[in-house]
Fold this protein.
Amino acid sequence: DQQVKQNSPSLSVQEGRISILNCDYTNSMFDYFLWYKKYPAEGPTFLISISSIKDKNEDGRFTVFLNKSAKHLSLHIVPSQPGDSAVYFCAATINNAGNMLTFGGGTRLMVKP
Amino acid sequence: DGGITQSPKYLFRKEGQNVTLSCEQNLNHDAMYWYRQDPGQGLRLIYYSQIVNDFQKGDIAEGYSVSREKKESFPLTVTSAQKNPTAFYLCASSIRLQGAEAFFGPGTRLTVV
């Protein structure tokens, strides 16, 4: 049973518009969430994270929102740029408990010029 | 430059042969990990190591083996017992056991022919 799910395998957005990538989790013990960006044939790179004590974290064009009651998080990219085209993975963990990251299946974002 | 290196980038193996994937890091990170990526399934943890001479099985360790004789190195051997070895393999490291943000290597694509 997948504990972290990204239900949209792909998303297409026009340049300059907002991209919203969604992620759902089932394990209520998860308290730290991360987003990674991955280009083809490369390793993922860390993008942004959020602790469960917050409901929002912002870094430039990237904002992550956490809704603990709904066990849902989302990544907003605004404005979207063609260079943002990649696969985005959300991941969750129980911080400081020696638990590993559990990854979602990824969402492929395509930003059209 | 600090980082994680994996070699080779592409690897072909005949069915029934063992093969070892290299992973080296010069980030002075204590923890290292091996993940496997299959299409649409995200990243799944194979093995991880918190400290030299110690390692633990992840979610899909069957058919794999690792060693951690040096802090900088965490090689993964894909044995003939691994039923579906064709995949993209990613090595990662972090300052401490996750949830600190993990840094990923560029990956090795293994194809069994």
The mean pLDDT of chain A is 93. Chain A touches chain B at residues 4, 6, 9, 32, 34, 36, 41-46, 49, 89, 91, 93-96, 98-101, 103-106 (CB under 8 Å).
